Amino acid sequence: MKKILTLALFLGAASPAFAAPDGQALYGANCGICHQGGGVGAPGQFPPLANRIDKIVSTPEGKKYVTEVLMNGLAGSIDAAGATYVGFMPSFKSLSDDDVAAILTYLSSLGGTKPAPVVSAADVAAARAAPMSSSAVAAARKDLNAAHPLP
């Protein structure tokens, strides 16, 4: 095995330890159980993410809000895609900044915005560095919706 890895590195292949996270696989393992495959959501239970995240993260305020949701969770009632959802979204702060960024970038790619906005590990790290209560995240959502109506 050592010879194969050494040969792969010699030939310029990336080491598995340095491979970029797979946002689709990470989404499936961490988010898909609720938000379903492809981010389509579950009517009345979990809002759709496809065709929405790209629009939200297209502004700096939206990108900040979405990373805050993943780092801090969200509870209560929200309006999304023309429907009301009441529930609880847990924090995903146990995931690395790179993994959360990969998930959000994958979700952004499921929308019509071209090129799809990218969420970086630095964006996630900034949200991680400023913890908030889930009620503060809900207030941030209301403020964002007033400035940039959320889809």
What string, H for helix and E for strand, traces the elements in order?
Answer: HHHHHEEHHH
Name the overall outline. Answer: globular
Q: State the CATH architecture.
A: Orthogonal Bundle
Radius of gyration over alpha carbons? 17 Å
The top-level CATH class is: Mainly Alpha
Number of domains: 1
CATH fold category name: Cytochrome Bc1 Complex, Chain D, domain 2
- State the helical fraction: 40-55%
Distance between the termini: 50 Å
Percentage of residues in DSSP E strands: 5-15%
The count of DSSP E runs of length 2 or more, i.e. the number of strands, is 2
CATH superfamily: Cytochrome c-like domain
Question: How many distinct helices?
Answer: 8
> What's the average pLDDT?
89
Give an account of the 3D structure:
With 151 residues, the chain is mainly alpha-helical. The chain has one domain (35-147): Cytochrome c-like domain (Cytochrome Bc1 Complex, Chain D, domain 2). It is built from eight helices and two strands. Strands 1-2 form a two-stranded antiparallel sheet. Strand 1 (74-80) and strand 2 form a beta hairpin. Helix 5 packs antiparallel against helix 8 (134-147). The longest helix has 14 residues, at 134-147. The protein starts with a helix and ends with a helix. Mean pLDDT is 89; it is low at 1-16. InterPro entries: Cyt_c-like_dom (IPR009056), Cyt_c-like_dom_sf (IPR036909), Cytochrome_c-type_DH (IPR051459). Residues 18-111 form the Cytochrome c domain. Keywords: Heme, Iron, Metal-binding, Signal.
